[in-house]
Automatic annotation (TrEMBL):
Pfam families: DUF4435. Residues 24-231 form the DUF4435 domain. This is DUF4435 domain-containing protein. InterPro entries: DUF4435.
Length: 280
């Protein structure tokens, strides 16, 4: 999107310029393919997407929506808002979990991405290994996620969950998180987290109907999943370098085929898009 700063009034008529019913603003250009799939499958109105170059810019646009001044829509990551029960606005579509990656990444996505990227026959695709890895990492990130939610809610300003999972792996060649490394890291943070409070936060996540792979920061989850794919490629004797971009494209391709009523987040997005206010 150009740097020109449109007024609210100008943004409200940009949809006419594009010849669509609604304009949808997203955080970055890489987010657009995901939201295109979601809206194409669920919306009964036409849309055009524009990226604004950052979450802070989306928040500015959200202020006009909250004051009932805007006709455009926003599509954005929930972060921890779904846990902390932030106010809901029908013109702001949010991801089910922390971010886009949390909707994209699941056992089937990883298996099919692995099958595609490594050109594996179906019988050689390690579905059980994928499923077990997902189960294991979901269990291993619980305490990290709980501490990060407390950090966010209390405004502590600590860096609890990094963008990459590398520092918490058992070794440089492993795709499994090390419980001891996680425990040591939490203990080394500037503020001691009360064990009862951390346990209470874990229970709150579960009581809200989420699992911890829904709520862990998306970049962290994506980096762990990419590492899993690379480890499996080596284990299976496939000499291929899998980049972040390759993995993201593979995930989007799988998601486009799998995003239906059977997808665990489908109803969340459907209910939000059905709730979008009509323009008179």
């Amino acid at each position: 999107m150009d740097d020109f700063d449109y007024s609210v009034e100008a943004r409200n008529v940009l949809n006419k310029f594009y010849g669509v019913d609604r304009l949808v603003y997203v955080e970055g250009g890489d987010d657009i393919p995901f939201w295109e799939i979601v809206f194409e499958k669920l919306a009964d109105f036409s849309v055009e997407f524009e990226s604004v170059g950052g979450k802070s810019e989306l928040i500015k646009l959200a202020q006009a929506i909250e004051h009932d001044e805007a006709d455009y829509l926003l599509a954005m990551d929930s972060d921890y808002d779904s846990i902390l029960k932030s106010e809901v606005n029908p013109s702001i579509i949010r991801t089910y979990g922390y971010s886009i990656e949390n909707t994209l990444i699941g056992t089937e996505t990883i298996c099919k991405s692995l099958k595609t990227l490594l050109r594996l026959p179906a019988k050689e695709t390690p579905h059980d290994i994928c499923q077990q890895w997902m189960f294991s990492i979901e269990n291993d990130v619980r305490k990290l996620v709980a501490c990060d939610i407390i950090n966010h809610a209390d405004g502590l300003g600590l860096s609890v969950i990094p963008d990459t999972s590398d520092r918490f792996m058992k070794s440089k060649s492993s795709c499994d998180l090390c419980e001891m490394k996680i425990e040591e890291f939490i203990n080394e943070l500037d503020l001691a987290f009360d064990k009862n409070v951390v346990l209470s936060e874990q229970n709150r996540v579960l009581s809200c109907g989420f699992n911890f792979l829904d709520i862990v920061r998306g970049h962290f989850l994506s980096s762990a999943a990419l590492r899993f794919l690379r480890v499996q490629a080596k284990r299976l004797g496939r000499n291929i370098s899998i980049s972040k971009d390759m993995f993201y494209v593979a995930m989007l391709t799988v998601f486009e085929g799998n995003f239906n009523r059977e997808h665990r987040h489908f109803m969340h997005y459907k209910e939000q898009i059905l709730s979008v206010p009509k323009i008179s």
